[in-house]
Amino acid sequence: MRIVVLVSGTGSNLQAVIDAVDSGSLPLEIAAVGADRHHTLGVERSAAAGLETFVVNFKDYAQRSDWDAALLSAVAAHQPDYVVSSGFMRIVAPTFIDAFSGRYINTHPALLPAFPGAHGVRDALAYGVKVTGCTVHYADAGVDTGPIIAQTPVAVLPGDTEESLHERIKIAERELLLEVLGSLAGA
Ligand code: GRF
């Protein structure tokens, strides 16, 4: 099974996938890692791990549709079985969803359908929920919508900040992503 991983940021979830593949516990091939902006730690750590990387810099495209087409062709060039959005902060076009229908996976740091969007941790904390968590789901053209594959609850602790809560959620998120990828890879 070949995957392409898309990132926008630090790529700590991606690092867990890289480590699991390297250690032999996750039987898949990371065909490439791509980002929507330059100088992401996610791409830097992938390059350091010897992986193929690409950047389709959103700001380089005057038209959104041109970026959509460029992203689709950059990802498709690697012929992935699955595409994983791991902290990739862009909604992809319907053409992308069609091309990777049922094969585009997203991780989200909340228990969807609660608290979708870019601030799932902050929003859960502000609402005052006592339990939040993480979700791995098949992504569609909406914002954190699409069929849920797996979820893990994470308790909100007294005194939690957005950062402390997100760090605990990310621990659960990494495990969940590895489990889902392992099961898709038939491990
Ligand atoms: C994850 O919590 C992901 O769900 C959210 O952003 C975080 C990405 O972290 N969208 P990292 O880039 O893997 O460190």
In the residues, how many domains can be counted?
1
CATH class designation: Alpha Beta
Alpha-beta classification: alpha/beta
Low-confidence parts: none
Share of helix among residues? 25-40%
Name the overall outline.
globular
The CATH architecture can be given as 3-Layer(aba) Sandwich
What is the CATH homology-level superfamily? Formyl transferase, N-terminal domain
Task: Spell the H/E element sequence.
Answer: EHEHEHEHEHEEH
Oligomeric assembly:
single chain
CATH topology: Rossmann fold
Bound molecules: 5-O-phosphono-beta-D-ribofuranosylamine
Helix count equals 6
List the helices and strands and how they pair.
Blueprint (H helix, E strand, L loop, with lengths): L1 E6 L4 H12 L5 E7 L5 H8 L4 E3 L8 H13 L5 E4 L8 H6 L4 E5 L11 H8 L3 E8 L9 E8 L6 H23 L3
Helix pairs in contact: 1-6
5-O-phosphono-beta-D-ribofuranosylamine binds next to helix 1, strand 5 and helix 6.
